[in-house]
Amino acid sequence: MSVAMVLDNILELKTHLVPWMQEVFFEDTVEEWIGSFVDPLIDKLNDVIKECKKQILIGGRIRDYKKAQTR
């Protein structure tokens, strides 16, 4: 599973989770919880994706990647 797929799944989960939580908790509580636990994860995954794209553009590769593929 790729990082982009994980990010997509978390974003989809967030769209379902927020309305469900708002049925039980006050809106401020939901915003704080999402901001504390979900949004930082989304930000980190976006940073990983951006860094990977930068590395690909400059010709970066995983050390010994081809060796691992032949085993």
Structure, explained:
This protein is mainly alpha-helical and 71 residues long. It has one domain (3-70). 83% of the residues lie in helices and 0% in strands. It is built from three helices and no strands. It has helices spanning 3-24, 27-57, 65-70. The protein starts with a helix and ends with a helix. The mean pLDDT is 90.
- Tally of separate helices: 3
| Termini gap | 21 Å
Question: Helix/strand-derived class?
Answer: mainly alpha
Largest sheet, in brief, is: none
Number of domains: 1
Topology:
Blueprint: H1 3-24, H2 27-57, H3 65-70
Helix pairs in contact: 1-2
Task: Spell out the key features of this protein.
mainly alpha; single chain; 71 residues; elongated
Short description:
The protein is mainly α.
